[in-house]
Amino acid sequence: GKMVADATGLEIQRFLSGSQGGDQQIAARIACNEIDLLLFFRDPLNPKPSEPNDMNLLRLCDMHNIPVATNIATAEVLIHGLERGDLDWRDILNPKK
Question: Where are the strands (E) in the chain, listed by range?
């Protein structure tokens, strides 16, 4: 998160690791419409025991129209889109209260 913030000037909220409750922190923010996009990097070669929790988090993003990047290539596209205002359509679908 710090590297992205330093490189882009965007405000980045970082969370705990999944095993320390980070999944729940992110899920709560998604449910309250407080996340514009999710960068969720995971190791595709070494699945971990918490993979079902990961899938639940991705499903929650789908339900709430949260763009998700699970790799650096997609993250770069989403970050540039956020900088340009390409994700402003989310305010129409999910107005902040």
Answer: 38-39, 68-69
Query: Does the model's pTM come out above 0.90?
Result: no
- Whether 36 and 90 have beta carbons less than 8 Å apart is answered as yes
What are the extents of the domains in the chain? 2-93
Dihedral sign (CA 77, 3, 72, 40): negative
Q: Which residues are designated catalytic? A: 23
List the one residue out of 43, 23, 42, 25 whose CA is nearest residue 34.
Answer: 25
Q: Residues 87, 89, 24, CA angle at the centre, nearest 5°?
A: 65
CA distance linking residue 51 with residue 69, whole number of Å = 16
Distance CA 7, CA 74 (A): 16
- Averages of pLDDT over runs of 10 residues in the chain (97 residues) are 81 82 90 89 80 86 93 93 81 68
Indicate the class that CATH gives domain 2-93: alpha beta
